[in-house]
């Protein structure tokens, strides 16, 4: 049942230069050495055909274990760091997990239920096991409420965009991402590093941004990816001053013109691209022309194996890069009968370009008139003194809801200018937006929360 | 500044933003005659809540929305701060 030409992740380790590494703040591991070493207690052969939960404290050990387990294990569930044990237990049942690979002591209620395999830095020599299957990669959706869904991918689908672009396009790159690689956006960058013959520097939770950037510079990072929220934070911090990557990538949220322009100013040498991808729909496309939105001709045709259409305002994608299915006994279908995944991301055609306007579930209803918070934010963010903003719904006894906005101003903005800036932002909104979309109240705040997945926290969405 | 003058000043500000010409503000002025639409009133109520700390129309579930400017102002004056 498996295609005879399975390519497992570790078969890419021999490509590229001999000094390829993957590192975090404490350790650096040679990717080339991983061909003959194992990070798993007992070596990878113990895990043949197993259904594995990868639950490591840091990203580095997960990265190494992914390399070893692909092509060996039946499936591996990547566990992001912020998952609590109660939640995890339900997911383990649902994913039919029988083995846990971890560097941590296990919760006592799991004793005896699972085979537990230790994972550590790859100091022991071990012969790699025979690659004999297509391992299922299970990932969790990054939704904000309730139990995450488990989606099933294969390496072939996950790496579809990388292979289509030509892995050699970014030869000798050292990649990094603000994301955790156990989530879809971060995993894409990890795979780009491994498949493309490059190196990788991992992010470290809680690391101060100046220290983080210093580490990226010391690690020779050339290619870097994050959400627009990640990027706004970096631009805000001023830490980008001595950093000069070749390639800057945005994904995971709407890349508005303000953040694209901000990055172009901060990194004049870099090529800047924004990509559309989601855990369920995979990588749809990437755009490199520095303009928000994407060309209308991408819709309705097959581009490098990806077909997209717009139905009822939302983007639908069919390709081999989408997840195969949701996992679990009564999991809903992931795609429609024709194989299209409804992304829930709403788009609008303006001239020759489609623009993302927001999430279907995030619409604010003002007395029957609708607005996506993201379209309001995109206008506010154009003001030169605005670093970042969040539009949200506030209940109203008159219209049910109104739009209000929380705004972070650029560093050093004089408090005396606040009223003038408020008036300017309102004027800008009035010029570009219908009356009900203009924020009723603008509040200046010091910070806006960003979720573990690197997206602006939207409590009302 | 009294509650009433705070309300009037917020109304003038919104009228300016919404390009509405307010008639002279008097107690028996019907809210319909102010030129404010429901969106303008929604903005007014939200801003007054921020400034005065109260939203008299949400606090009481059975609150009838006032029909004159005088009633509107009294709704704010009558809520214990």
TrEMBL record, chain A:
UniProt keyword terms in alphabetical order: Ligase, Membrane
Top-level division of the source organism's lineage: Bacteria
Chief location: membrane
Key word Oxidoreductase present: no
Gene Ontology CC annotations of this record: membrane
Pathway assignment: Lipid metabolism; fatty acid beta-oxidation
InterPro entries: AMP-bd_C (IPR025110), AMP-bd_C_sf (IPR045851), AMP-binding_CS (IPR020845), AMP-dep_synth/lig_dom (IPR000873), ANL_N_sf (IPR042099), ATP-dep_AMP-bd_enzyme (IPR050237)
Localization terms from the record: Membrane
Enzyme Commission (EC) number: 6.2.1.3
GO terms of molecular function: long-chain fatty acid-CoA ligase activity
Pfam families: AMP-binding, AMP-binding_C
Domain AMP-dependent synthetase/ligase: 137-314
Protein name: Long-chain-fatty-acid--CoA ligase
Organism field: Bradyrhizobium niftali
Lineage per the UniProt record: Bacteria, Pseudomonadati, Pseudomonadota, Alphaproteobacteria, Hyphomicrobiales
């Amino acid at each position: 049942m498996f295609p005879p030409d399975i390519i497992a992740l570790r078969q890419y380790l021999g490509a590229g230069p001999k000094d390829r590494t993957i590192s975090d703040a404490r350790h650096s591991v040679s990717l080339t050495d991983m061909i003959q070493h194992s990070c798993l207690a007992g070596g990878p052969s113990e895990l043949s055909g197993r259904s594995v939960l990868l639950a490591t404290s840091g990203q580095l050990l997960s990265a190494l274990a992914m390399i070893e387990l692909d092509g060996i294990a039946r499936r591996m569930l990547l566990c992001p760091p912020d998952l609590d044990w109660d939640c995890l237990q339900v997911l383990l049942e649902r994913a039919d997990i029988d083995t846990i690979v971890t560097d941590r002591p296990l919760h006592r209620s799991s004793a005896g239920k699972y085979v537990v395999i230790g994972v550590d830095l790859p100091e022991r020599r071990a012969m790699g096991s025979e690659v004999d299957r297509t391992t299922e990669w299970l990932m969790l959706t990054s939704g904000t409420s309730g139990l995450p869904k488990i989606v099933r991918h294969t390496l072939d689908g996950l790496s579809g965009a990388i292979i289509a672009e030509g892995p050699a396009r970014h030869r000798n790159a050292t990649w990094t991402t603000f994301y955790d690689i156990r989530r879809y956006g971060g995993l894409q960058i990890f795979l780009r590093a491994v498949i493309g013959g490059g190196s990788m520097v991992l992010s470290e939770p809680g690391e101060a941004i100046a220290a983080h950037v210093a580490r990226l510079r010391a690690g020779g990072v050339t290619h870097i990816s994050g959400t627009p929220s990640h990027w706004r934070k970096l631009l805000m911090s001023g830490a980008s001053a001595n950093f000069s990557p070749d390639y800057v990538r945005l994904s995971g949220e709407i890349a508005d013109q303000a953040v694209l322009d901000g990055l172009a100013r901060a990194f004049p040498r870099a090529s800047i691209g924004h990509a559309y991808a989601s855990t369920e729909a995979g990588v749809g496309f990437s755009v490199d022309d520095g303009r928000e939105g994407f060309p209308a001709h991408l819709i309705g045709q097959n581009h490098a194996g990806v077909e997209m259409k717009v139905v009822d305002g939302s983007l639908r994608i069919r390709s081999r890069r989408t997840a195969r299915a949701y996992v679990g006994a009564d999991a809903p279908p992931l795609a429609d009968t024709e194989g299209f995944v409804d992304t829930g991301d709403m788009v609008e055609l303006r001239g020759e370009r489609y623009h993302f306007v927001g999430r279907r579930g995030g619409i604010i209803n003002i007395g029957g008139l609708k607005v996506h918070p993201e379209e309001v934010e995109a206008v506010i963010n154009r003001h030169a003194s605005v670093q970042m903003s969040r539009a949200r719904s506030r209940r109203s006894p008159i219209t049910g809801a109104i739009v209000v906005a929380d705004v972070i101003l650029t560093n050093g903005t004089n408090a005396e200018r606040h009223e003038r800036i408020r008036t300017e932002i309102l004027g800008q909104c009035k010029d570009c937006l219908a009356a009900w979309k203009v924020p009723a109240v603008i509040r200046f705040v010091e910070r806006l929360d960003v979720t573990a997945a690197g997206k602006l926290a939207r409590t009302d969405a | 500044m009294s509650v009433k003058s705070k309300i009037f000043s917020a109304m003038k500000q919104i009228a300016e933003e919404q390009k509405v010409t307010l008639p002279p503000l008097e107690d028996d002025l019907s809210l319909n005659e102010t030129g404010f639409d429901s969106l303008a009133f929604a903005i007014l109520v939200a801003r007054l809540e921020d400034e005065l700390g109260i939203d008299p129309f949400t606090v009481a579930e059975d609150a009838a929305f006032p029909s004159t400017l005088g009633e509107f102002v009294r709704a704010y004056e009558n809520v214990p701060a």
